[in-house]
Amino acid sequence: MEQVEDAGLEERLKSALWLSIGKIVDEETMKLGVNATPQFIGALTEMVWSQIETVGQDLESFAKHAGRSTVNVSDVMLLARRNEGLESILRTFVEQAREAES
Fold it and tell me: Where, by residue number, does the polypeptide cross the bilayer (predicted)?
């Protein structure tokens, strides 16, 4: 029964992701004056879903390795360490969030 519920939840999440990606693609293609097929949006959605699963597993592994059951900022920063642009954006965001808390 739980597997059926998990499968239903996964399908709803994928549908929501497809809808969001479709909106982004529509906005960008209108700006560029090109068209994107539903197959392109579907393939992009599958690629993003796969990336989300991988990132989630990595974050869980980092937290578990540190002896925690909860993912925190240090895990996210560790994940972003090989992407200098992303790491810079995240560092700025974290610093701004910490300043706002103070």
Answer: none
